[in-house]
Write a structure and sequence with these properties.
The protein has 253 residues and is an alpha/beta fold. The chain contains eight helices and seven strands. Helix 3 packs parallel to helix 4.
Length: 253
């Protein structure tokens, strides 16, 4: 007997959807039948990237992809975005908190501004999206937030990033309790090193050292993270809530 994940008629909002893991999650949810809302911060190429991806998806299935700009660190912008989702699509079924930035420095060299910038986007941004997303989310929905292996391993030079991602994973455990009365599940995914443009900036020597810690002896792919996000939002995960699912090739450094 075949088992298929069918999200037809469901609405999924993906933050940071213009590239990398976010773009792949968007494609995966769309392929499963969902209407997708692509969030981007309107910085650099993000608007153009998001609009091109939405056009590609709308060509496959008309009126199935929207694009909304909002800096997740801005509470008012997120509130407006969520209200637009409700006005255009009637509400929200799935929220995927993927937006994140890096400002790596050792604690001795990390400026207060770079500390705060990462906390504002990677942690407070998730809070904003959950708070205002819950206002428009239908009962029995699901929230998936991207944590990181950094929250567990404590990589050198990533105190701000690791702290933010650890906070996100803890927030999902709390939200699992608070959302349960409405049947809303909340989980986190903690990816390992994933083969994205961001990972491509890792020096070759550092990459080789990382691979020594990965039993599967390779980097992960965005699709492998997206597939876990899809599972967590599907009926197959109906009794999974408050968890952090590690997608890291078996890394136990």
């Amino acid at each position: 007997m075949a088992i298929a994940i069918d999200l037809a008629g469901k609405v999924a909002l993906i933050t940071g959807a213009s590239q990398g893991i976010g773009a792949q999650i968007t494609r995966t949810f769309h392929a499963a039948g969902a209407i997708v809302v692509l969030n981007h911060p309107d910085l650099g190429t993000t608007r153009g990237d998001a609009e091109r991806l939405a056009a590609e998806l709308n060509a496959l299935r008309p009126d199935s992809a929207d694009v909304l700009a909002a800096d997740v660190a801005d509470a008012d912008a997120v509130r407006t975005m969520m209200q637009l989702v409700k006005a255009r699509r009637g509400g929200l079924d799935f929220l995927i908190n993927n937006a994140a930035i890096l400002r790596d420095r050792t604690i001795a060299k990390l400026s207060p501004d770079d500390w705060q910038a990462v906390i504002d986007v990677n942690l407070t941004g998730v809070f904003h999206c959950c708070k205002f997303g819950l206002e428009v989310m239908r009962d029995s929905g699901a929230i998936v937030s991207l944590g990181s292996i950094a929250a567990i391993q404590g990589f050198f030079g990533q105190s701000n990033y690791a702290a933010a991602k650890a906070g996100v994973q803890a927030m999902m455990r709390v939200l699992a309790r608070e959302g349960a009365r409405r049947g809303i599940r909340a989980n986190a995914i903690a990816p390992g090193v994933i083969d994205t443009t961001m990972a491509a900036t890792i020096p070759a020597a550092a990459r080789a050292e990382m691979l020594k810690n990965i039993p599967l002896a390779r980097l992960g792919t965005p699709a492998e993270v997206a597939n876990v996000a899809l599972f967590l939002c599907s009926p197959l995960a109906s009794y999974v809530s408050g968890q952090t699912i590690e997608v890291n090739g078996g890394w136990r450094g």
